[in-house]
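In this supplementary section we document a worked example of the pipeline. Step one takes a protein sequence of length 366 as its only input; no multiple sequence alignment statistics are reported here. Step two produces a three-dimensional model, which step three serialises into structure tokens for compact storage. The input and output of this example are shown verbatim.
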Amino acid sequence: MFEFKYKQLEFKWLSVSLYNKICIGVFTLGSTLVADSFTLNWWDLFIFNFSANNIELAYNQVDDFNFVELILGLVFIILSIVFFLLKKKYELWYKTKYSRNLIAIKQQGLQATNFPDFNKKVAGKDFRSFNIHNILIDEINFDRKKEYNKALINQDYIISDIINLKNSLINHELAYWGISRIPLTYRLGVKLSDTQTINVFDYNRKKQKWNQLSYSRVKNLLIRSNKFSIKKSNIHKASSEDLILSISTTFNVSKDECLKVIPNYYKIYELSMSNIGHGKRDRFKTINEINTLSEQFRQLMDEISTDPNIKTVHLFYAGPNSLAFKFGTVLSESIHPNMRVYNYTRSDTPCFSWAYDSNKDEIINF
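The serialised model returned by step three reads:
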């Protein structure tokens, strides 16, 4: 069996959907050939006419490569079954030799929560066969004391541990749970953006439990992945290098509150989802919804990066931690402009009183 040369190389070509489609295609071809080989009209042969001439005529029709089709069809069917069994054998070997690992990261700052129960099958992936590595990023004390720059230092220590753990594991995935300040959540996503597979959980406040966003094909087909509606303003102040980017998914971001922080802006882009009203928590049910919005956000940031007048994007965000974390993972610090992500606190004046600046990699207070 093929051996791995590099630890980070996940040789999964036998388990991709393309391989399954090839097996199905070969099996279908074989079945078609077998069915086509029986083109003899057995009803006419055995029910109506038993004369020697008719029987000879019927069998002459069969002799025209029908037996060749039958043999070829059976060969293709057998090959498809053999290929499928080889794939299953490979997957069993792979799981045995290279066990799957889940790096489960829980970020808590606003309140303490429990890890999900990995011994139960949930709506998303089944983690019961994974080796679970729990990572806790506890920012509650930093949040209570408003020592957010110390929270960044604490993040760096844990991120270093996560990277070392990733390097020691051949086959791994990452999962994220978070109830923390949005700037801290976004920053963590940026620092872990090289992770290939990320599973996301949302916290259901009504039921007080974690819900993994579903990977079910049926749910992902039935539940429509809505996109942001985007409203772009004209140039407000040509000499400014600041773009205001407001994103409303669960609550509406107040434009007036944004302007209290950045009154002299170049342009303002307003992204919003429908049916927010007075608030819509726990709106996302499937991973496709998160992935669709993250891809749209990335495309918009690619577009923004082509405008040389924009040096800093000021992000005012109202939505779940899961989406903020995904936003961080899709951005590139070397391609996109400086991002300043603001925290909202209703009792502060202004409500967006501090932010994380990606270029400076520090918290800025206003």
